[in-house]
C-alpha cells in the first residue's frame, strides 16, 4: 500500500500543481478553439488567464504558505539537551548533483546550514539524516542520495562518526517510519530540522509514530507584508505558491489515510527543562 500511495501522490501532484494545472487548462482551452467550440474555450481560457495574471502580478502564495510557516516557531529558549538532530531530506538537488557529479543544494539548502549550527550548539548529539529520492524516475538512487547527504554534512565539518544516514525513504511518512529503528533513544527528544512550510505535516507524522520531536523550522518562502508588492515575477511567486498548495493537499491526504496525528498539527505546551 505504501508504494501505491507514493505513486498516486506523484501522479496527483503532476495534475494538481498550480503551474501544471494552468498549462493543462490552457491546452484544453486551445483544443476547444481548434474544434470551433468558442463558448466552451472562453469559459476555460478566460478564468485560467486571469488566475495566471494574478499569480504573475502578486505573490498570492504567501497568503497560503504563511499559516504553515507560522505554525511552529524556533524554540525560545532552546532546549538544554537533546538526543539527536533529525534532518529531513529535501535540501539537496539530486538531479543536478548526479548531472554534474558534485553536491548541489536546492531551495531547501538551509536545512544543512541549520544542521551545522545545531551540531555546533549540541556537540554530543548525533546528526541523523533521513531522505531518499522522491522522484518516480530516480528510484534506484537511494545510496547516491545518502552519499550526497554525507558529503554535504562532512563538508560542513560535522564528524563522520556523528552522522547517521537513512536513504530508502521516498516521502515524509517513510522518513519517520524508516528512521525510527535507527534512533539512538527511541523515546528520546530530537530536534527536527525541515522547511517551515513542511513542519506541520512532519510533526504530525512524527507524533503518530511516537517520535518526540522539537520543531526547528528553516527555509522560509514567504515575504512579510512590508515586501509583498506587485512585481510581475511569476517564477518567484511560484516558490511560495507551489509548496503551499502541495502542503495543504499533503496535510489532508496524510490525515485521511491515518499517517498523521492531526490535520493541522500545532505545538505542544513549552517544556520546562530548557535554557538559553
From TrEMBL:
GO CC, alphabetical: plasma membrane
Name under which the protein is recorded: YdcF family protein
Domain called DUF218: residue spans: 83-250
Sequence intervals crossing the membrane: 12-35, 44-65
InterPro entries tied to this protein: Cell_Envelope_Assoc (IPR051599), DUF218 (IPR003848), Rossmann-like_a/b/a_fold (IPR014729)
Domain of life the protein comes from: Bacteria
Entry-linked PANTHER family: ENVELOPE BIOGENESIS FACTOR ELYC (PTHR30336:SF4), INNER MEMBRANE PROTEIN, PROBABLE PERMEASE (PTHR30336)
GO biological process per UniProt: Gram-negative-bacterium-type cell wall biogenesis; peptidoglycan metabolic process
Keywords: Membrane, Transmembrane, Transmembrane helix
Amino acid at each position: 500500500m505504501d508504494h501505491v500511495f507514493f505513486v498516486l501522490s506523484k501522479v496527483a501532484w503532476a495534475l494538481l500543481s498550480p503551474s501544471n494545472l494552468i498549462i493543462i487548462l490552457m491546452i484544453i482551452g486551445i483544443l476547444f478553439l481548434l474544434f470551433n467550440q468558442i463558448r466552451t474555450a472562453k469559459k476555460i481560457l478566460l478564468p485560467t488567464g486571469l488566475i495566471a495574471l494574478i499569480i504573475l502580478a502578486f505573490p498570492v502564495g504567501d497568503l497560503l504558505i504563511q499559516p504553515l510557516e507560522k505554525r511552529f516557531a524556533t524554540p525560545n529558549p532552546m532546549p538544554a539537551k537533546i538526543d539527536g538532530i533529525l534532518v529531513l531530506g529535501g535540501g539537496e538537488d539530486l538531479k543536478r548533483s548526479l548531472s554534474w557529479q558534485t553536491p548541489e543544494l536546492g531551495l531547501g539548502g538551509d536545512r544543512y546550514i541549520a544542521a551545522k549550527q545545531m551540531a555546533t550548539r549540541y556537540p554530543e548529539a548525533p546528526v541523523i539524516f533521513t531522505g531518499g529520492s522522491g522522484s518516480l524516475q530516480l528510484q534506484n538512487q537511494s545510496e547516491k542520495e545518502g552519499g550526497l547527504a554525507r558529503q554535504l554534512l562532512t563538508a560542513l565539518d560535522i564528524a563522520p562518526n556523528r552522522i547517521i544516514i537513512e536513504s530508502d525513504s521516498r516521502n515524509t511518512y517513510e522518513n519517520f517510519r524508516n528512521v525510527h529503528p535507527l534512533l539512538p533513544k527511541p523515546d528520546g527528544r530530537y530536534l527536527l530540522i525541515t522547511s517551515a512550510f513542511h513542519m506541520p505535516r512532519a510533526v504530525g507524522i512524527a507524533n503518530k509514530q511516537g517520535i518526540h520531536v522539537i520543531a526547528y523550522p528553516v527555509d522560509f518562502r514567504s515575504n512579510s507584508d512590508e515586501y509583498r508588492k506587485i512585481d510581475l515575477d511569476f517564477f518567484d511567486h511560484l516558490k511560495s505558491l507551489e509548496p503551499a498548495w502541495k502542503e495543504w493537499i499533503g496535510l489532508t491526504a496524510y490525515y485521511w489515510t491515518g499517517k498523521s496525528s492531526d490535520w493541522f498539527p500545532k505545538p505542544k505546551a513549552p517544556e520546562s527543562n530548557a535554557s538559553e
